[in-house]
Design a protein that fits this description.
14 strands; about 325 residues; 10 helices; 6-stranded mixed sheet
């Protein structure tokens, strides 16, 4: 039996413009403060793309870094899957722009839109493709530029989002004991379309959100799916080295950790620096974890995702 294992330490890309909470309030004349934002979200700053930058620019940077860190030739890639809800164009897929830019001549390439759950779903799909099609290497990217979808006069959403991209490589190889790579994934759906969506009117787009309902559904969904994952894989909270969640809101993550009886010190949290980067948040957190030496081979990691829809899931990964 084959497994899909992480190959290299991945890569990440962030825009140059760093916007602190105080600068955000001043630039957009919001009635808010650093203390208000940090207390309610945990966010201290976010990165915003420049007018000339696109989702593909960040995705290409992250992809090139992942390939460089793994010393992998782009022509060895069999599959490129880009999770994004902010593509450069409605079509063609932004993934094909990445494919051309990095020189991955043989790779099947397309986009996936599952909002903030996109990266986790993309990893599961890439794993199935590698094993089912007898292929060897897949590049999975999460990239979003949600700053283009923000109503900067709406304090409830303007403080939450940032731009970025993260990428990982998966390699199919024969399993050995203890098994490595992607071990198991559980997913869920809970109706909630009307509570978090992008409104499009007169050629303008803006994120609309019922924050209280999103918080409630996120906590409930992430707790349940993580318990299901542990039950189906016969592990306990003590076995888990790290939980790497979608970085939506620190209070959500603290509440989920409390309900699971897991210390927050096991949550790899980067939302304070990046804010909510949607599909990019999990791979960016993975990249930061590798860079800081927190992640090590052999560790058991749980990836958690929750996004608009509501959709979500949890994956068990041995590094």
């Amino acid at each position: 039996m084959d497994c899909s294992v992480l190959y290299g330490i991945g890569g990440g890309a962030l825009p140059k413009d760093i916007l602190s909470n105080q600068a955000l309030a001043e630039r957009f004349h919001l009635e808010t403060s650093d203390e208000w934002i940090v207390t309610r979200t945990g966010i201290q700053q976010r990165y915003l793309v420049a007018p000339h930058e696109h989702t593909s620019d960040l995705a290409i940077q992250a992809a090139k870094m992942a390939l460089l860190n793994a010393s992998l030739d782009p022509e060895d890639l069999d599959f490129i899957l880009l999770a994004t809800s902010t593509p450069d164009h409605r079509f063609p897929p932004t993934a094909v722009l990445v494919q051309e830019a990095i020189g991955a001549k043989k790779a099947l390439s397309f986009d996936m839109n599952a909002a903030c759950s996109g990266f986790l779903f993309a990893v599961s799909m890439a794993d199935s493709y590698l094993r089912g099609q007898n292929k060897r290497f897949a590049l999975i990217i999460g990239a979003d530029t949600l700053s283009r979808m923000i109503d900067w006069s709406d304090r409830t959403t303007a403080v939450l989002f940032g731009d970025g991209a993260g990428a990982i490589l998966l390699k199919r190889e024969a399993c050995r004991e203890p098994k490595r790579g992607l071990l198991h994934t559980c997913t869920f759906f809970s109706r909630g379309y009307e509570h978090l969506y992008i409104s499009e009117n007169h050629n303008t787009c803006a994120i609309k959100m019922d924050g209280r309902e999103v918080f409630r559904q996120a906590v409930s969904g992430l707790e349940k799916i993580t318990r299901q994952l542990m039950l189906e894989t016969h592990i306990s909270t003590e076995d888990i080295h790290w939980i790497i969640p979608h970085q939506a809101n620190k209070r959500i993550l603290e509440t989920v950790a409390h309900k699971l009886n897991i210390p927050f010190s096991k949550i790899l949290y980067t939302g304070d620096q990046h804010a909510n980067t949607s599909a990019a948040s999990i791979p960016l957190a993975l990249w930061e974890g590798w860079k800081k030496g927190l992640l090590k081979e052999g560790q058991l990691v749980v990836l958690q995702a929750f996004g608009a829809g509501f959709t979500g899931g949890a994956s068990l990964l041995r590094l």
